[in-house]
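note to self — DONT lose this again. spent like an hour looking for the file last time. sequence + predicted structure for the chain T wanted, 134 res
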Amino acid sequence: MKRILPLLLLVASCAQKPANEAEAVAFAPVLSVLETNCVHCHGDNRLSTMPPINDTQAIAKLIGTSWIVPGKPEASRFFQVVTFPDEIPGAMPPSGHAISKKEVQILRDWIKAGAKLPGHNVKLAPQGPLPRSI
């Protein structure tokens, strides 16, 4: 039994690592969309009324609420606001341009698949030019 326990622990740790790596790889396209389109305004310097999207721990708090309903993108406020036309109040990003259809599909697929996050906290950093506000 003494020999089996370390082996079982090794097997268990190996089984968990690929799952975490797989989640991180699956989240990478979502991370890119968020860093390019959302974190400029919903990051560390956001208004208190804005949902935080500055790291995956903050995003995890939105999952399971009306913001992100796992498996149901169309019921998720997070998804709804990025699909609103620019003339609808609350459309995101508020910079006068919608995110691309490919980016919308990335977010839809992520939420549809359960809105899984990497097993470790990932800090999000704004990428690209600062969006202008309307």
